[in-house]
Amino acid sequence: MRGFRNRLLCGCAASASLLGVWSLPAKAQEAPQGQQIEQVIVTAQRRDENLQSVPITVNAFTSEKLQANNVISALDVGKLDTSVIVQAVDGNVLPFVRGVGTPLVTMGNESSIAVYLDGNYQTRLNPALLLLNNVDRIEILKGPQGTLFGRNASGGLINIITANPDPDEPMQAKATLGYGNYNTLYGTGYFADSIGSNFAFSLAGAYHNQQDGWGDNVTTGGKSWFGEEEAIRGKATYVVDEATRIRFSAFYARMHTDEGQQLQVQGQTQGWPAGSGLSGAVPELPFFDTRNDLSNAFVTEDSSASVSIEHDLSFATLIETAAWNQTSEDRPLDVDTTGLDAYDAEFQDYATQFTNELRLISNDADSPLQWTTGLYYYQTNQAYDPLELHGFSLGLPPDARLQIFSRLAVRSYAAYAQGTYKLAPRTDITFGVRYTEDDDSGSGYTQLALPNTAPIVLAHDAGSKSFAKWSWRAAVDYHFDDNAMAYASINRGFKSGTFNLVPFGSAGVKPEVLTAYEVGVKSEFWDNRARLNGSVFYYDYRDAQVNTVPAPGVLDIQNAPAAEVYGLDLDGEVVPFDGFTLKGGLSLLKARYTDFPDAAFFEPGGPPNYGLVGPFSRSADGNYLSRAPKVTFNVGGQYVVPLGSGSSLNLGANYAYTGAFFWDADNRVVQRAYGLLDAQLAYTFADGKYAVRLWGSNLTDEHYYANEFESAGPQGSVGAPAAPRTFGVMVDWAL
Predict the structure, then answer these.
(1) What angle do CA 497, 498, 499 make, to 5 degrees?
(2) What digits encode the pLDDT tens for the residues 122-180?
(3) ω into 503 cis (within 30 of 0)
């Protein structure tokens, strides 16, 4: 801890020194008149504010930046923010921010990084959402979010904001068609218009179909790593009168893909399944090839709807929002990952969710006190109905199936308030508090299903728990002038406790609690042609929920009593001359367990069975948290070249480097460092209605994994590869 304090003081001193340079008199910073850095409005404090005036470490990417970097999936966001790693398992997004996150998205296991769509919490997020071309911006808030946002989050949040139709705006229409390698088709469309003077609507749709796989299945002769996604989102705004407006939205997405299936991690030995009569190590395949005896293609469907009523009370705005979500998944999985029918699983699960929030936001911009208060309700029902296991290696009778049924119901109630008071002309203080009470209850049973006979119940369990927590925020910020500020904050947030559902266990796990200490600076200079933001932070991380797979088909969640995380975030952008923008970011991170006496450790099995043996309960004190690289950085640029007659050429590139990190708490398997190079060349025609884009992602064809799991048994360490080199052409049209 003393070492951290010294580093923090050094970081603060360095920040102050830099700030002294950034806040030089205007004459010393004079620059030629011309293009300036884009000003971004964010809702990090649940009200519209300039990114540079918010005393929170937040990164935001507008629709223009997303398109310029060809971000068409939630998985691509990590390329633009150095402290974010976004992965997906079974068609659901898994974000990690500053080493904090959740590696599995089994039912009942929420993420440590909350994801919101237009301010509405998403228990599970379909990556197809970012295919839609109505996304206005993405905001990434770093550190615990325990006051203003609905569902408490220990590590941060990602808020995806889509465009709102407005009766005062003219008709809008735009579309994109594209084709890429692996025989991939792309298509998006957006239309918005008004009916009369008080009603407007919009409709956005997207389709993505990768028809050829990245690899082959050597057992079936079919393809591996293919996918088809479709999504549609509608919104409407009804202006009742000058004081009241109502917004409606609805969303549907369907994904049919085998991306996320498991295969042997290269460099890790795998053995043949028990009962197969085979021994020795399973031969290693090329990186994207599989040998599964079934396709592992699964289907995920997501539906949601929401309604929000806003009413101006003169002194404040009252907002009532109700939202409903439903997810269903049907996923076959070849657990043994070989060509033998030794151990297969089929997940049939669903989740429903309802949220209701009543929020009151102060209106007087001239008042020294700006405040927000509200009430929040969240409920979810999640279930495996059932998870079915079968195969000869399980030692079951022929045609028998082991079925796991489990359910979890969560009811959460919260009240919150936060205010910012102008203590002096250049100094603001912020205090926020939230009280949350969660009531969890669940049950489950395991049965043996035999042909032509009644199922035999083998085990049954049930339980309930209540979790009550206070979370809070305190911050102070000082504005040196209109273009430079410094801030310091203390935040506490938590991730709710839960139960294991695979199978159901009544013991449950405690909430994880994270207290963050942070000092940061934000600045713009050189006539607003340059921006540099930075922060240093320290996390006191208690009872982190750590996911392990002690045996195939079984999930265990345990609490790590204590960990600490500290580091540095830097983000910069500069316009050295008109039309040319350079950007970059750097994250330095150290994330270790300080008290974890009974972590799950695995060891190589060796001949003749290979695979892994364990888990063994050992101390992980001093081990690194998973998905927590010490160094990440990115650098990129955009250059717009006018060609005359209104046409232009846009050249862009981005390089994102992720340092090596460990996948699991035992620090046994390492993901080596990798760098992803993306580039895009776009030609915009003179009338501005048409553009043609040539794009490429992972141009150096880096081979790395999107996730990894280790479990006892012959299959050992398995994972899913991330996308190889992809490229294509897009044609954009806008009315």
Answers:
(1) 145
(2) 887 777 777 888 999 999 999 999 999 988 899 999 999 999 999 999 999 999 999 99
(3) yes
C-alpha–C-alpha distance, residues 285 and 635, integer Å: 34
CB 259 within 8 A of CB 300: no
State how far the alpha carbon of 395 is from the alpha carbons of 273, 275, 401, 446, in Å.
11, 8, 11, 16
Nearest to 652 by CA among 631, 682, 624: 682
Rounded Cα distance between 487 and 56, Å, is 8
Helix (H) or strand (E) holding 205: strand 199-210
Encode pLDDT of 151-166 as tens digits. 889 999 999 999 999 9
* Per-residue tokens: 425: 């002309």
The residues pairing with 567 across neighbouring beta strands, listed in sequence order, are 537, 589
Q: Specify which residues 438 forms β-bridges with.
A: 412, 467
C-beta separation of 426 from 479 below 8 A: yes
The dihedral built from the CA positions of residue 714, 104, 549 and 106, taken in this order, carries a sign that is: negative
SS3 712: coil
Question: Across-strand partners of 86?
Answer: 95
d(CA 431, CA 286): 55
The tokens of 418 are what? 């936060």
Separation between Cα atoms, residue 215 and residue 529, nearest integer Å: 46
Rounded distance, CA 327 to CA 666, Å?
33
Beta carbons within 8 Å of 236's beta carbon, 6+ residues apart: 165, 199, 200, 201, 202, 247, 248, 249
Q: What does DSSP assign to residue 63?
A: H
Residue in this structure with the two tokens 């796989």, named with its chain if needed: 213
**Which residue has 């600045």 as its token pair?**
523
- Rounded Cα distance between 435 and 22, Å, is 40
Cα gap 632→671, rounded to integer Å: 13
Helix ranges restricted to H, 534-684? none
Tokens standing for 64? 């223009």
Six token digits for residue 591: 């994330």
Q: How far apart are CA 77 and CA 459, in angstroms?
A: 43
* Degrees, nearest 5: CA angle 5-7-11: 115
What phi and psi, each to the nearest 5 degrees, are found at residue 597? -75, -20
Kindly list the distances between the CA atom of residue 104 and the CA atoms of 124, 250, 264, 334, 502, in Å, as whole numbers in the listed order. 11, 27, 18, 17, 12
Q: Mind listing the pLDDT tens digit for each residue in 639-690? A: 999 998 889 999 999 999 999 999 999 999 999 999 999 999 999 999 889 9
Tokens representing residue 301 in the block: 């469907």
SS3 content of the chain, % helix, strand, coil (to 5): 5, 60, 35
- Position 130 scores a pLDDT of 76
Largest CA distance in the chain: 88
Whole-angstrom Cα distance, residue 599 to residue 615?
Answer: 9
> What does 129-140 look like in DSSP terms, one character per residue?
GGGSTTEEEEEE
pTM above 0.85, yes or no: yes
Burial class (CB in 10 A: 0-12, 13-18, 19+), 357: buried
State the chain's mean pLDDT as an integer.
91
- For a pLDDT cut of 70, what percent of the chain falls above it? 95
